[in-house]
TrEMBL record:
Residues 163-278 form the Probable transposase IS891/IS1136/IS1341 domain. It comes from the Bacteria. Residues 291-358 form the Cas12f1-like TNB domain. It comes from Exiguobacterium aurantiacum. Signal peptide: none annotated. One of its GO terms (molecular function) is DNA binding. This is Transposase, IS605 OrfB family. Residues 1-44 form the Transposase putative helix-turn-helix domain. PANTHER family: RNA-GUIDED DNA ENDONUCLEASE INSQ-RELATED, TRANSPOSASE.
Length: 363
């Protein structure tokens, strides 16, 4: 089993400069290989002959000497990432690969552990061509390090994610089960096998920070392009957005870990978030909730700890079906928070009824 451990890096000024250069070189190679791939395809289409062999990252070094300073494995992994993007495109699970932007794309690079080039000693982590960097190891691990991904946030903070190979967790037999209905008024309505229901309030992190974000955005718009004051305003705005993101992830991680710790079978609904966000009235709230990230965290944490996660089909009518008699009461709009079953007369809270129907699927 492969598991990732993410830590905060504290590089020196020289180390930070090298990390930024390596990130830029990996992005450059990715874009250059994509450009050549498109050019090769157009040439073969125009001539009707066989395609020429695409270049390798090493073939660009004589033309661009600055690539020699970067970690060669980071450049090789950039090619692997592009190959994986094309594989997803050909499989129909993603669109055509796009060029990476310095401003919009995630700033990161990946390198592999060859003969102990990535290791932890005396509170520092060693990376190829960088050396030992101070980092905050807030939790330990047992296993062999396979690779490391260095990333940089828009506020200039560096992180390293170590991919570690570990033994699989033993399967845990079902003892406690829980059904989870996701929503906006309450982030989650959870009912366990003792039929005890708990409603988790929606933190609405983005909504609460909107006033400060607007002020920071206005301040940035008024600064002269290229000035130091504009860079300060950009950094302040980036910090505001990073705070919102960190608070959202903190909430999702704590809730998902608590659910996995307390239950052996977790049943959660999967929502068509992309389609739901087409509604302009709800798109911001849906994006702020982070349902997809929550399900993703539940999925990998359940796998790591030997739990069973059941992801229910989006078409399952958990809200429409009466949890008492099983009668389908028909579609209900979002304003209908309570309803009474016409068949058995049971009165339902919309979210509690949905969580009960999800819980019954665990049997």
């Amino acid at each position: 089993m492969l598991k990732g451990y993410k830590y905060r890096l504290h590089p020196t000024a020289a180390q930070a400069e090298f990390l930024v250069k390596t990130i830029g070189c990996a992005r450059f190679i990715y874009n250059k290989l994509l450009e050549d791939h498109i050019k090769i395809h157009e040439e073969a289409k125009a001539s009707g002959g066989p395609r020429r062999k695409p270049p390798t990252p090493a073939s660009y070094k004589p033309l661009f000497p600055f690539l020699c300073e970067a970690d060669s494995l980071a450049l090789a992994n950039a090619k692997l990432h592009l190959d994986a993007a094309f594989a997803r495109f050909l499989a129909g699970t993603a669109g055509f690969p796009v060029f990476k932007s310095r401003r919009r794309s995630r700033a990161s690079y990946t390198t592999n552990n060859q003969h102990g080039t990535i290791r932890i000693e005396a509170g520092k982590v060693r990376l190829p061509k960088v050396g030992f960097i101070r980092f905050t190891q807030h939790r330990g691990f047992d296993g062999e390090i396979r690779s490391a991904t260095v990333s940089m946030t828009r506020t200039g903070r560096f992180f390293v994610s170590l991919l570690v190979e570990q033994a699989d967790e033993p399967f845990v037999p079902a003892e406690h089960k829980i059904g989870i209905d996701l929503g906006l008024e309450h982030f989650a309505t959870m009912t366990n096998d003792d039929l005890v229901t708990e409603k988790i309030p929606n933190p609405r992190n983005l909504r609460k920070a909107e006033a400060r974000l607007k002020r920071a955005q206005r301040a940035l718009a008024r600064k002269k392009p290229g000035s130091r004051n504009r860079e300060k305003a950009r950094l302040l705005l980036a910090k505001r957005h990073e705070q919102v993101k960190n608070r959202r992830y903190d909430f999702l991680h704590k809730l998902s870990r608590r659910i996995v710790d307390e239950n052996q079978v977790v049943v959660v609904e999967t929502l068509r978030t992309r389609e739901m966000m087409q509604d302009r009235r709800l798109s911001k709230s849906i994006g702020d909730a982070g349902w997809g990230e929550f399900v993703r965290q539940l999925e990998y944490k359940a796998r790591f700890h030997g739990r069973t996660l059941v992801k229910v089909d989006p078409w399952f009518a958990s809200t429409q079906v009466c949890s008492a008699c099983g009668e389908n009461g028909g579609k209900k709009d979002l304003q209908t928070r309570e309803w009474t079953c016409a068949a058995c007369g049971a009165h339902h809270d919309r979210d509690v009824n949905a969580s009960l129907n999800l819980l019954y699927l665990a049997d």
